[in-house]
Amino acid sequence: MVCINLSVSTPPKLSRKLTLCSLGQPSSGPGVVRQIRYGDTNGGLVVLSDTQTIEVLAHFARERIPERSVHAKAAGAFGEFEVLEDISDLTDADFLTGIGKKTKLLTRISTVGGEKGSSDTVRDVRGWATKFYTQEGIQDFVFNDLPVFFIRDPIKFPSMNRSHKRHPQTNVPDNSMFWDFHKNNPEGIHALMHLFGPRGIPASLRNINGFGVHTYTLNKSDGSYVYVKWHFKPDDGIKTMDSKTAVRLAGEEPDYHVKDLFNAINRGDYPTWSVCIQVMKPEEVNSAPIDIFDCTYTWPYEKYPLRRIGRLTLNKNPDNYFQDIEQACFSPSNMVPGIGPSADPVLQARMFSYPDAQRYRVGPNYFQLPPNRPINKVYAPYVRDGPGTMNGNYGSDPDYIFSQLRPVAQSKKARKLWEIMCREGDGKEQFLHNIMPTLVDVPDRLRKEVLGKLIYLARFLSGILC
Ligand code: HEM
């Protein structure tokens, strides 16, 4: 006769910490499965009412997020940036001005082609991503350790990366694909020379450069701006690894670089980098020896010398890799006032691509997660709801723009320009005068609407005109 009785497969173990179910109820034990026992054997039927077992198994099946399509394998750490030279002559960016000012940051350093579990000591570009938690919002720098890129047309990016990854049939990285791509896209020769030179395999992530690669801008609210190239230079110098050692370590110690950075920070040996810029004035662009919007070129150092403006230090390991590094979302589109993009088409495309990837990879509310959250107070009630909302969701505030019920303050930058125009004698009148002729031949209704808006704008900007 089969004896059926309800029991548990293993007795609950005593634990120093009280174990709870993920929904907070007391657990009879994390190793317990409720089942209808088959006689005195270990066998039995697991019951559907054992919701804890179901939750544990169901969550396990969902605990991965898609790995990054590129730059999947990485190390990461927190740190700080300190201003060493004031560059308020070039930018309004608050975190870059005021000698001694410190800003918290998060850095992720990656290989590009390999998957999340791939070996560290391969010949590949190293990616460098730093997130600055500034008082004016998030500033991200998403750089590489090579000063130039392989392509100058962004549409080629997926093709280039596929040629570096696994063959569609064999599922093995394939040198024929690699060279087939590069032979037919010769603009990458400069980057290839770097990749196959001594710097193609670093000895340690603590001894690599971070290059902005693209031209960026620094700007001020008075309308002035300069073009810049960013350089992070390791204070301990560049250190590289020979191919033979790298091949051995790729097999014996696949996480060699990740461990090296973690252990160095753990023992208080904090790596530092000098943060430098090259600067070019807009009027110098036409006579520059290179096309500054083509990321396959560097700027000659003799003509545009490095200016050291700060120090970057990595001094704290993440408490939890998945939360702080895997879910970190860096994007070249995240810029604070005073820093801007340039007309480099690859940079322009990247500004779309990263948040797009992150909405898919992490979810549409990725910016609410701990590593991505700005430290300043955010008020963006038009971006709300969605999976994982955890920022209070703006309570009862209107969820549509231009509400009279709760008008919101806007950036003071437009007001500053208006004030300058007001100071320039008849600047304000000139402004309106210049607009009027453009309204002569537009439909009546549109003209009235535009005039209404202008009056509203002028009142808003100057608090009933200056
Ligand atoms: C058209 C050109 C490019 C496109 C479309 C592109 C796209 C992407 C995408 C989709 C990711 C994954 C983002 C994520 O899932 O969070 C990524 C990661 C990354 N890219 Fe690019 N990329 C381009 C060029 C570059 C260049 C020129 C650099 C360096 C100057 C660069 C540096 C990086 C780095 C460092 C990461 C890893 C960021 C992290 O640590 O999370 N990429 N890229």
UniProtKB/TrEMBL annotation:
It holds the Pfam family Catalase. Its cofactor is heme. The active site is at 71, 144. The keyword Oxidoreductase applies. GO terms for biological process: alkaloid metabolic process; hydrogen peroxide catabolic process; response to hydrogen peroxide. Residues 25-409 form the Catalase core domain. This is Catalase. It comes from Hypocrea jecorina (strain QM6a).
